[in-house]
Amino acid sequence: MSALFMVLSLGAQPQKQDGQARTVKEGMENFRNTAKDRLQSEHVAYLTNELELTPEEAQVFWPVYNKAQAEQKEYFDKISETKKVLKEAVKGNKSEKEIEKALKEYNKVRGSQRNVFADYEGEFVKVLGVVKTAKLYLAEDSFRTRQIHKLGGKGQGPGDGGGMRPQGDRRPDDGKSGGKKSAARAE
Question: Can you give the pLDDT at residue 130?
C-alpha cells in the first residue's frame, strides 16, 4: 500500500524536465498494469479454486466467462461516459436544456444496464452444471467483498488482525460494544 502512495505522490509532483515527466508517467502506467494483472490473476485463481474447475471445464468455461465480462465492461463504460458528460454539463454551467438532455441520456443508459451474468446463466449451466453455476455467482460476490475489504484496509476478512477502521468510525472495536454508541459519542 505504501508503494501505491509513493507512486501516486511522485505522479502528483510537477516535473520540470520532459524526460522526467515521461518516466514518472510510464512508472505509474506500469504500476497500474501490474496491479490490474495481479488482480485478474487473483480473480482467476479464486474462481478456479472456489468452483473446483477441472482442466476440461476450465477450457470451456473461461471463454464464456470472458465474453460475459467483456459485455459487462461495455455497459460500465457507457455509464461512465454518460456520467462524465452529465458532470461536465453541470460544472460547465450549460443551459438547463443541455443538462436535461445529458441527464436523460445518463438515466437511459443506467436504465438499460442489465445483469449480463443473468443473461449468461444458461451458458454457464451448460458448461458447469447448476451447482457450479450457483457457486460461480456466490464466488463472484465473495471475491468482490474481499477486494473491497482489502481496499478499505481491512485485510482479507474477519480475524486477520491487520486493518484500519474506516475514517468515519473511530471507536475502538473491543467486541463488547454490541453495536451501541458510547456515551461520549451519543452526546
Answer: 96
pLDDT at 133: 95
For the chain, list residues with pLDDT below 50: 1-16, 155-187
Overall domain count for the chain: 2
**Residue 134 identity:** A
Distance, CA of 87 to CA of 103 (rounded, Å): 9
* Judgement on whether residues 22 and 86 belong to the same structural domain of the protein: no
Q: What DSSP assignment string belongs to 84-144?
A: HHHHHHHHTT--HHHHHHHHHHHHHHHHH---HHHHTHHHHHHHH-HHHHHHHHHHHHHHH
- CA separation for the pair 64, 70 (Å, rounded): 10
Predicted local confidence at residue 153, as pLDDT = 67
- Sign of the Cα torsion 147, 150, 154, 159 reads positive
Within 10 Å of residue 75's Cβ, how many Cβ atoms?
16
Would you state the pLDDT for residue 19? 57
Q: Give the Å distances, CA to CA, from 117 to 35, 36, 38, 71.
A: 25, 21, 23, 9
In 3D space, the residue among 174, 115, 160 whose CA is nearest the CA of residue 141 turns out to be: 115
* 4-37: pLDDT as tens digits: 334 444 444 444 455 566 778 788 878 878 888 8
Q: Are residues 93 and 37 both part of a single domain?
A: no
Are both 38 and 80 inside the same structural domain?
A: no
